[in-house]
Write a structure and sequence with these properties.
single chain; 464 residues; alpha/beta; Arc Repressor Mutant, subunit A; Aspartate Aminotransferase, domain 1; Aspartate Aminotransferase, domain 2; 3 domains; four-stranded antiparallel sheet; 16 helices; 14% strand
């Protein structure tokens, strides 16, 4: 049997990368099929006139991409490129001896890896040198902000390039917005259970964060009215479209009611809409209802893939100078090369393709969670990245997290999401996207349901 090898005259430099690319292309084109054996390192080196070290580096690259695998005594073999869990690297949370249901992360697959590689391959041919030579404009390159108009329209925000600032994601934008709208000692209002980075950000900036009473639709308008009537506040932070820990979807009438109170008491609004178009059938954005006092934040990291650290901040004219100054202080400007990749994905349709893929995949995981957790109380959405699980009587957050840990299941406790005066509701946040393999995700959810369907019992305390 003849074992495949590439034509040495076609290998590009550096040679280890050229060899890895040649083998990867042969796999994608069907020239090398699932299960076929590659030459040993030494035989491949002899055939191509390369060093064994060069071949080893190429094979290592292909292993990290999950295109080949190797076993001592058997050599290297081609893996099935159609497996959904073929990821470019191994995540710690993907270990088969544990289940990470804690970290909020989108689902991704070989499709995402292929799209990212294609984008990177296209860059050297036609990328504008300003993408890697310039450090201005601080608000982001004009072509990136022009493309942002299209993406923001898909998110429900109609704007112009002049009102957009590029960011390195929502966290970057949130830091700029909080510091641009407030001064130390000012009061910021939010849900009583909110994003942990809102809590941390207010603490770092010396702001007084007050959590307001909520119901299943979000902040109660009368609670907002009552606070503003008796005390001053500068900013209202909202996560109205599934981005809050409780995974709530705020209906349009509630959004309008909160906007009315904000106008009455001259509150600025920061709207965190990190999931963007992944969220199906959502109401009008808060920003579209009150553009004169709203800062809108969104990003690509939750709706395409985690490493796409690029996003948009939209603000009215009179806030742009202050916000630009904060962007400079917190990072000078968004990384142009990453914004270039995001822009290309917006313009060629890849970003929306991956967002719709994410929406469909989250729907499958929501169905699995619904079947596993049908006997307990929880909130969530088929478009959400997580669910909020209220624990049955007898459980505390601490005891449940400890029991889950015994089965090597990680869930997020409620503690980091609670504002200062909010007592623990005895709940946990469960991520739907952190385990990439669907079968492993189902196994983890079934184990979680097994704990919940049994009465609480204390773990033994070990003396040391």
């Amino acid at each position: 049997m003849t074992i495949w090898h590439p034509d040495p005259k076609t290998l590009q430099h550096p040679l280890h990368a050229g060899l890895a690319s040649a083998i990867a292309n042969a796999i994608s084109e069907g020239e090398l099929r699932h299960g076929e054996q590659l030459p040993t390192h030494r035989k491949m080196a002899e055939r191509l006139g390369l060093s064994v070290h060069t071949v080893s580096k190429a094979y290592d690259t292909l292993r990290r991409q999950n295109l080949i695998d190797g076993h001592v005594g058997r050599g290297s073999y081609v893996l099935d490129p159609n497996l959904t869990n073929n990821l470019p690297f191994k995540l710690k949370s993907e270990r088969r001896d544990g289940f990470d249901l804690a970290i909020s992360r989108p689902v991704f697959s070989k499709l995402h890896v292929d799209r990212f590689k294609q984008a990177l391959t296209a860059l050297p041919n036609d990328v504008d040198p300003s993408m890697y030579l310039s450090c201005r404009p601080n608000i982001g390159h004009e072509q990136h902000r022009i493309a942002g108009v299209n993406w923001l329209s898909a998110c429900g925000v109609e704007t112009t390039p002049e009102h957009i600032i590029m960011t390195n994601g929502v966290c970057h934008g949130m830091s700029a917005a909080l510091s641009g709208l407030t001064r130390p000692g000012d009061t910021v209002l939010s849900d009583d259970i909110t994003h942990h980075l809102v809590i941390a950000g207010c603490s770092y900036l010396g702001l007084n964060l007050v959590g307001l009473r909520t119901d299943e639709f979000g902040i109660c308008p009368d609670a907002l009215e009552s606070h503003c009537r008796e005390k001053e506040a500068k900013v209202l932070c909202l996560l109205p479209s599934l981005a809050s820990p409780t995974a709530l979807m705020m209906p349009e009438d509630r959004r309008r009611a909160l906007v009315e109170v904000a106008r009455k008491y001259d509150l600025y609004i920061i709207e965190n809409d990190v999931f963007g178009p992944v969220v199906a059938n959502r109401p009008a954005t808060v920003t579209s209802l009150a553009p004169e006092r709203s800062i809108y934040l969104t990003s690509f990291s939750k709706c395409t893939l985690p490493g796409m650290r690029a996003g948009y901040l939209v603000a009215p004219d009179h806030l742009l100078p202050a916000l630009t100054g904060r962007i400079v202080v917190f990072g000078w400007m968004a990384t142009p090369l990453m914004c270039e990749l995001a822009t290309r994905w917006v313009l060629d349709g890849t970003a929306l393709e991956l967002a719709m893929w994410q929406q469909a995949e989250l729907g499958r995981r929501y169905d699995i969670a619904s079947k596993a957790l049908q006997n307990v109380q929880w909130t969530g959405s088929p478009s959400g990245l997580h669910i909020w699980l209220t624990l049955p009587k007898g459980w505390t957050t601490g005891s449940f997290v400890a029991h889950a840990r015994e089965l090597k299941i990680a869930v997020a406790p409620d503690t980091p999401f609670l504002t200062s005066k909010k007592p623990s509701p005895n709940a946990v946040r469960v991520s739907l996207g952190s385990i990439q393999d669907l079968a492993q995700f189902k196994q983890g959810m079934d184990l979680l349901a097994g704990i919940l369907n049994r009465p609480y019992e204390a773990l033994p305390q070990l003396a040391f």
